[in-house]
Amino acid sequence: MRRLFASLLCAVALQAGCSEALTWRAVDHMIAAEYPDVTALTTDSLAAQLADDTSPTPVLLDARSPDEYAVSHLRGARRVRPSADAYPALDTLASDTPIVVYCSVGYRSAGVVQALQAQGFSEVYNLKGSIFRWANEGRPVVRNGEPVSAVHPYDASWGQLLTDSLRASPSSERL
To answer: How far apart are CA 42 and CA 37, in angstroms?
Structure first.
């Protein structure tokens, strides 16, 4: 029941054109209801970690589709399939390796975090607000290693959470 309520709250907020703050609260609530054991990391915290040369750089995993990843992603991120049951490519990593997973808003990535926790990873985090919040805050995204100012909007509803000027056009989605 709690999951259904959170999903409905999120859908209503998006369709009703609620304020961005209210809509993000609904998204965060939906993710927390569905994935209560997943730890979130803020975009500020990730930016600080990436800028700190004295701490280990976290492994960044992008849990979006190949088309979404092709438009832009965080520098150094590896794309993973969000629906995978296991991530054998990560088997060589120590279980305490810091890992940050993101998608568009944080829902698909929360599922990946939960799967990685089940695989035994202890320092795995879901990026709160994911690439939408990251880019909305003016943080860098790249395509083919070069900075870009476009992000795949996922779909018309969820794309409302992405700043208009960042929303990739259909032509840039084919890149």
So the answer is: 16
Structure tokens at 136: 């909305």
Q: CA 5 to CA 10: how far, in whole Å? A: 9
Contact residues for 32 (Cβ-Cβ < 8 A; gap 6+): 6
pLDDT in tens, 63-78: 999 999 999 999 999 9
Residue found under tokens 């960042």: 166
pLDDT at 3 over 70: no
pLDDT digits (tens, 9 = 90+) for 4-57: 444 544 555 555 555 566 688 889 989 999 999 999 999 999 999 999 999 889
For the record, the structure tokens of 75 come out as: 């520098």
Cα 59 to the center of its chain, rounded Å = 13
Three-state DSSP at 39 gives coil
Output the furthest CA–CA distance in the chain (Å, rounded). 46
pTM for the whole structure: 0.88
| Residue ranges in the chain assigned as alpha helix (H) | 2-16, 20-34, 43-51, 66-71, 107-118, 130-136, 170-173
Q: Who contacts 175 (Cβ-Cβ below 8 Å, separation ≥6)?
A: 70, 71, 143
